[in-house]
Every structure is written in structure tokens, then in C-alpha cells.
Automatic annotation (TrEMBL):
InterPro entries given in the database record: AAA_dom, Bact_polysacc_biosynth/exp, LPS_length_determ_N, P-loop_NTPase, Wzc-like_C
Source organism phylogeny: Bacteria, Bacillati, Actinomycetota, Actinomycetes, Micrococcales
Protein's recorded name: non-specific protein-tyrosine kinase
Protein family membership: Belongs to the CpsD/CapB family.
Keyword Chloroplast attributed: no
GO cellular component labels: plasma membrane
Length: 465
């Protein structure tokens, strides 16, 4: 995965990433709010020995060793120290007291740390630990008891009540939540991308083919078959502008082939190949090109239905030798677009399309028309598109965004590559408005022109009135 594909995944899966981040932050806020605050107070004391009263100058001095200090640190969490602290501070019996200590370097200085849910209690425990430790220290040192001396705790830096808790830390929790949420979101986004079976972007197509992207057609909501011909009914729409771009790019490809004919197909049914072929034929006719649209989908013909024409006779009728092409080819209004319907559905479509009469018919049609478009069946279910492609200059593959499965597209391209079929390029269909931003300029330009024409017509009507 290159950098551009990675950013493409981020754009496509941003909702998942944002959702994970928001969920993680909300969880951190909840945990922080429900967690009992813990305050930490520290005190430093100096431990030394002192002779008993009346011991005089000859009592001697006992020096605390490093082992003694380690012993005192280890008994801090025992009842011998904790119970006196509770009694001195009037804490309930069994009240939790959390106190630790560590020796500062090679000195007799202890750094005492106390934690409690109340700042005053934390400071009081830290300050009381030193004196209580000194009172019981002799019980844990035989030499100290034998010398008649006791341990004295001298405060160096008494503890003060902390102003803010050490736990929970809202800033740290929010930072960790952001990192965890972002990592989780990215992981889920990449996992979903890896497991996604549908074609979503150009990158999904380029993963299987280096052929060019000739166009991206936006999704059009329609209520009837006639509305599918947007180039005719809405010539200033985004879809019509996208079809004209596809026409222009296809004409550039035609320069390299010189056969002036293309098969329009798809990997599977339902990807919009027939609608694309019909609108592309209208766009070619609008440019002054005498265009013929042939319905070679002899298994599920739909060109006649899409264009509102009679489809009872057509291609199959000609191939059976029952009529002449000019008798069944229908002109679309007063345009330069002509339509050859499929005719009756035969029991042997592949044999008819691969027959000698079909080859002779194509040669005649290419002589009679400037450009020929052939709507063929999908590639994966049947081989018809491959048969027809041999008679034309190339193949335009229509890919339904969010509909075509990657495995179906891969299988279709593999079949075409196996027989040496020429895939001239791809037309992405059902492109969302977010992915089709490259057409907005043309759309607004044509929309503005249409609006100006409407305003002029209203002014003329008003002047006449």
C-alpha cells in the first residue's frame, strides 16, 4: 500500500476512525470521573540515635547502619507501625494507610511517601510516620536495644497537603485515550479495507489493471426507464457532463485503434453498462457523429426497453437472414443516433455472435456508420463479450462503484487477458458526489448556462405579454 492509497483509506473510513477516537475519549472521561482521587504527600526525616535519659556521657553512640535503615523501610507496612499511626491520627481501626519510604543515598535520611483520598490525611500520615517508626525501631535491632539507645526522627522537610491529586491524571488519560482511539481506528480502518470485497475507488481497479480510467459517472436517481437517458432529458446535469468527458476520452483511444467501434460491458449484471452505452451513444450523436448502438446482449436485452423502442425484431432477425439491417435499425428522434435492438432471444447466443453472418454484418455496419457501440452481456457469466470484442476496436469496462465485487472484476479481467482481448479502459459508474468532485466545475458551468437560458426565456415571455 502506497501513501496515496493509505490516505484514500483514511478518507473512506474516517467515520470509523473518528468513532473510535470519540469512544476512547468518552471512556477516559467516564473512568476519570468515577475514579476516587488519590493525593500524594512526601516528607523527609533524619534518623539518628540518642542515649536513654540518665545514660550520661558514657552511654556511647550507636550508629545506624544501612541494614538498619533497610529494616525500618521494610516494616512500614506492618501493624507495628500502622496501628500507632491510626491511633495518633484518630483514624478508624482497619482504615487503609498507604505509606512507603526509601533511603536517600548513603545517608540516614528517609523520604516518606503517603497516599490517601484526602490531602490533609496524606500529609498527616507522611509527617507521623517518622516519629512512630522511631518508637518501634528498637524492637527490631538487638544491638540498639542492648546499648540502651533509641531512634530519633528529626523532620527535615515536613509534608504539606497537596493541592491536586496525583491520580487520576485527566491530561494523561485524555492523551492516552486519543492515542489508543487513533490506533484502534486506524487498525479497524485498514482491516476493513483489507476485508472489503467491493470496488470503491480507482485504486481498487488499478490493483488489477493498468488500463486507463476513462470516466467516472455520478449516481443518478430515476423513477422510470426514460429518465435513464440523462444526456437527452438533462443535458446540463453532472451525469451528462461526465458522459461527454467519457466520450472525449474514448475518442482519444479510438485514434490508436482506428476501428471506430467499442464493446460496452461489465463484470457482472447490474453495473449500468446498458445505460452507459445508451447515453454514450447520445453523446457521440450530439457531436455530429453518425452513431449506431447495437444490443448484442442476446440473453437479457434491455437497450430497446431503456430507450423506449420496439425490440421484437433486430440483430437476431438479421443474423437469421430474415430481414435487412436498414429495415430494423431505428433512428432516435431527429438525432444522429441509430439503434439496432437485439430481437428475439435465441437458444444459442454465443454461436450466433461468433458466426460468419455476424462478422459480415459488423463489417457492413462499420462502413455505414461513423461509430458503432455494442452493448454485450457481462464477462464473468458468459463468453459473449469476448466473442464480440474481436470484431471491434476495443472494450469499455463499466465498473459499478460499491457494487462490483473485486473478485468478479479480477475474474473478468483474467478471462479477457487469457484470450488477448483489448480492454481500452474503465468507466466507474455510480460514483458518489464526494468521489466525483472532478466534475463539479463542468456541472456548475452548464447549470449556470441553463439558468441564464431560462431567465432569457422568461424575459422574452414577459416582454411579449
Amino acid at each position: 500500500m502506497d501513501l496515496s492509497e493509505f490516505f484514500g483509506v483514511l478518507r473512506a473510513q474516517w467515520r470509523i476512525i473518528a468513532g473510535c477516537v470519540i469512544l476512547a475519549v468518552l471512556s477516559a472521561v467516564t473512568v476519570t470521573a468515577l475514579t476516587t482521587p488519590v493525593y500524594t504527600a512526601q516528607a523527609r526525616v533524619y534518623l539518628s540515635t540518642s542515649g536513654q535519659e540518665g545514660g550520661g556521657q558514657d552511654a556511647g553512640t550507636f550508629v545506624l547502619t544501612e541494614d538498619d535503615l533497610d529494616t525500618y523501610v521494610s516494616i512500614l507496612d506492618t501493624p507495628a507501625v500502622l496501628n500507632p499511626i491510626r491511633e495518633e491520627l484518630d483514624l478508624p481501626k482497619g482504615h487503609p494507610v498507604n505509606v512507603t519510604a526509601e533511603v536517600t543515598g548513603a545517608t540516614s535520611i528517609l523520604r516518606i511517601t503517603a497516599q490517601a483520598p484526602d490531602p490533609q490525611e496524606a500529609a498527616a500520615v507522611a509527617n507521623e510516620t517518622g516519629p512512630q517508626l522511631g518508637k518501634v525501631a528498637g524492637e527490631f535491632s538487638t544491638l540498639l536495644a542492648a546499648s540502651g539507645q533509641k531512634v530519633v526522627s528529626t523532620p527535615i522537610a515536613p509534608a504539606t497537603p497537596p493541592s491536586r491529586p496525583t491520580s487520576p491524571d485527566p491530561v494523561r488519560n485524555m492523551g492516552l485515550a486519543l492515542l489508543v482511539g487513533l490506533a484502534l481506528g486506524l487498525g479497524l480502518a485498514l482491516l476493513r479495507h483489507a476485508l472489503d470485497t467491493k470496488v470503491r475507488t480507482e485504486a481498487d481497479i488499478k490493483a488489477w489493471s493498468d488500463n486507463p480510467m476513462l470516466g467516472g459517472l455520478p449516481m443518478v436517481k430515476t423513477s422510470s426507464g426514460q429518465d435513464l437517458l440523462s444526456v437527452e432529458t438533462e443535458p446540463h446535469s453532472r451525469y451528462a457532463e461526465a458522459i461527454r468527458r467519457l466520450r472525449t476520452n474514448l475518442m482519444f483511444v479510438d485514434v490508436t485503434t482506428g476501428k471506430h467501434s467499442f464493446v460496452v460491458t461489465s463484470a457482472m449484471p447490474g453495473e449500468g453498462k446498458t445505460t452507459t452505452a445508451a447515453n454514450l451513444g447520445l453523446a457521440l450523436a450530439d457531436s455530429g457523429t453518425r452513431t449506431l448502438l447495437v444490443d448484442a446482449d442476446l440473453r437479457n436485452p434491455s437497450v430497446a426497453k431503456t430507450m423506449g423502442l420496439e425490440g421484437g425484431v433486430g440483430l437476431t432477425t438479421i443474423l437469421l437472414g430474415e430481414t435487412d439491417p436498414q429495415d430494423v435499425i431505428q433512428r432516435w428522434g431527429s438525432t444522429d443516433l441509430y439503434v439496432l435492438p437485439a430481437g428475439q432471444i435465441p437458444p444459442n447466443p454465443s454461436e450466433l455472435l461468433g458466426s460468419k453472418p455476424m462478422e459480415l454484418l459488423m463489417a457492413r455496419l462499420l462502413d455505414d456508420y461513423d461509430f458503432v457501440l455494442i452493448d454485450s452481456p457481462p464477462v464473468v457469466p458468459v463468453i459473449d463479450a469476448v466473442i464480440v470484442e474481436r470484431l471491434t476496436g476495443g472494450l469499455l469496462m463499466v465498473v459499478g462503484v460499491d457494487r462490483t465485487k473485486k473478485k468478479d472484476l479480477a475474474n473478468a479481467l483474467k478471462q479477457l487477458h487469457t484470450v488477448g482481448a483489448n480492454v481500452s479502459g474503465f468507466a466507474r459508474n455510480f460514483v458518489s458526489s464526494k468521489q466525483g468532485s472532478e466534475y463539479r466545475y463542468g456541472y456548475h458551468r452548464y447549470e449556470e448556462a441553463a439558468a441564464k437560458g431560462t431567465r432569457r426565456a422568461r424575459k422574452k415571455a414577459t416582454a411579449r405579454g
